Amino acid sequence: MADTPSNEPRLAPVAPSSRPVSEALLNDKWDRAISSAVIRGSLGLSFGVVFSVLLFKRRRWPALVGLGFGLGRAYEEADVAFKNGPTRSGTNGMRLVRS
To answer: What is the pLDDT of residues 41-88, one digit of tens each?
Structure first.
């Protein structure tokens, strides 16, 4: 039965919609910024909790300071990445300074 021609029209395959390169780069930068904020913020909070338990008699402020340092570092890296060109250059969003 598969050899007999059918009168039904064949549908052409739909090409996947591709995003512009600039949008893909912007999405890549946002993904890096958000993941960096989550990772660095949690690492800063973890170090703050450890120092709070070991040195500061379980106060809250060392954990908050650690969280602030982590989020601040993530913000700084994201700011540099958004101000510079594409992140696919291999520099991982770091600014290169030539002397």
So the answer is: 999 999 999 988 888 788 888 889 999 999 999 999 999 988 886 545
Asked whether residue 18 carries a pLDDT value surpassing 70, the answer given is no
Enumerate residues 6+ apart whose C-beta is below 8 A from 74.
33, 36, 37, 39, 40, 41
Residue appearing with tokens 């060392």: 62
Distance CA(22)–CA(30), nearest Å, equals: 12
Positive or negative: CA dihedral 13, 19, 24, 30: negative
The model's pTM is 0.61
**Cβ-proximal residues to 24 (8 Å cutoff; 6+ apart), any chain:** none
Q: Check if the beta carbon of residue 73 is closer than 8 Å to that of residue 24.
A: no
- Is residue 81 within 8 A of residue 93, CB to CB? The reply is yes
Query: Which whole-number Å values give the CA distances from 68 to 7, 22, 56, 73, 79, in the listed order?
Result: 68, 31, 17, 8, 16
